Amino acid sequence: MKRILLMVFRNILLVPYMWFRLCYVAAHADKYPEQNRYDMLRFIVHRANKGGNVVIKAYGKENIPQKSGFMFYPNHQGMYDVLAIVDACETPFSVVAKKEVENVQFLKQVFACMKAFTMDRSDLRQSMQVIMNVTKEVENGRNYCIFAEGTRSKLGNKLLEFKGGSFKAATKAKCPIVPVALVDSFKPFDTNSIAPVTVQVHFLQPLLYEEYKDMKTNEIAEIVRKRIADIVEKV
Question: How far is it, in rounded angstroms, from Cα 88 to Cα 203?
Fold first, then answer.
């Protein structure tokens, strides 16, 4: 909370305009091209990071596919994770978020601008519909981000188990799977500090459909988890 207040205070002259702009675009997302909406979000996130003593270090951006229709699979450390990836990645993407955060102010507007899906993990039918919707969107050239752990770790840089079901949309869409290793992404919002912090975002080599087409989703999950863990445990 302290860092969020610092972000607001240090951008106090911009906050009223950008909040109005964010809310308006969120409410009228269909009026704006995806790249325009995404560029606006990146500007807001970048200014917030600068004001909040957060530095994003991006690695492996050359591993982000040039052709859209791919999926990011990061480890999940906290509520800041999506914002870290947005700051690090110029290519627009959307996200599948858990239903519990769909009414959190600011995240609510961000997700609306991204045309994100929210998943109710207690409702199997709704969850399957989300997977089908994401599959169709990825097949049509949109990019998505799913947190395969299903919930944030709450253990800092330690990873939880990656759930095989999280990879169903990717396997159905036959798209590149891009592992993303987040390091110290829990610190901006999940620690009670305003000390300078550096968050690392590592885009790892994609797992292509030809490589995983004969694997079970649990096997894919284990490969992606290991690649991420190898990076996180080294830093």
Answer: 9
